[in-house]
Design goal:
- The protein contains six helices and 16 strands.
- With 226 residues, it is α/β, with parallel strands linked by helices.
- Strand 12, helix 4 and strand 13 form a beta-alpha-beta unit.
- The radius of gyration is 16 Å and the shape is globular.
Length: 226
Amino acid sequence: MVKVTYFGHACFSITDGESSVIIDPFLTGNPSASTSPDKITADAILLTHGHGDHFGDTVAIAKRTGAFIIAPYELAIYCERKGLKSHPMHIGGSRQFPFGKVKLTPAWHGSAIIGDTIEYTGSPCGFLLTMNGKTIYHSGDTGLFGDMELIGRLQKIDLALLPIGDNFVMGVDDAAEATRMIKPGKVVPMHYNTFDVIKADPEEFRKKVKTICECIILKPGESVDV
């Protein structure tokens, strides 16, 4: 069994009881976060892109836990320059790690570390994570794109984590269409209601996908077993 815990926005912890990973650990400054970075344990940190609401507490968590970073090449190298261990990958590539298999998928978005200057951190991505025989698809920040059908056709997806907040990512209607293309066993909406600009109704999304698969609406801190 694999347990997936939602920490708010697009941050999830995934564990099989022996190993665990965390995706996009934006906790500090996240008004919906249900935990703090000092309470996170992880063997690896998966980063979909470099925006602050996804890169988040990566440095602090990695330095405290010794977790290594899995990210698109440019973002992984940025992490190495911060003194972190990383395994660079890129879209279409996959690799078996001790905790499971990771494959990077396309995501239509941007990626940069934005401070006093803007540092490009490569292409954004999504992740297919297979752990203990179960596959979770975290789409990353993305708009709807036709190859989602291909992702679902080539890989049986037990759980899909899809954004519904619109403006920067898919809205409810496009996320419902993505669900139709992917055909997951279950779907969890993410990346909504953290800020006013991405307000969305997860119940509306659930109604639109009810004939496709089970939609589970998680509050920050809640988990689903896969």
